[in-house]
Design a protein that fits this description.
5 helices; five-stranded antiparallel beta sheet; about 180 residues; 7 strands; alpha+beta; about 40% helix; Nuclear Transport Factor 2, Chain: A
Length: about 180
Amino acid sequence: MKKICALIFALISTTSFAQDLECPNHLVLFKQFMQEELDLLKHGDVQQLIKYNQKYNYSSRFNRLHNDQYYVNGKWIEREVYESRLADVLDFVREGNYSVTGFKLQPIKANRLISVGEICVIPVEIQTRISGDIELSTNDWIFVRSLKSNKWRTFTYLETVSAEDFKVFFPDFPSDIQLK
């Protein structure tokens, strides 16, 4: 009888755990995040991009731990440098040297609850045009949902992310999930 009760409890726990995972229900929202960023690159200004990143970029939650620096391509940089780089990116895009011609969310690679909240790893295929050449790349994006606020943020995994920073961002990231 005890084994049956334990089995029923385990099944109920597993079911309630699975119900807590909301990622599959938010794929449209994730696409909207990406489209909003692309629209800002085309028509926004530096301050709008900063505001967008503060709202949706997961690493921005850690700026205060680094003297209000910003995390870009695996490095923490000062605000002035960050703003200058954003201005350069906007100029590069608006001069017609760079554009995202399409993006596609691939099937969900992993969806788990960890200490930082719900993580949802989705490979994103992005087609870009750089100085006339079309390139196709795929990176894992980690969508992170705070269990307190129920809000989603994004983290694009790049090989430039140091193991130390990644451990701070995701202290108990599952070792069985391979990122690329």
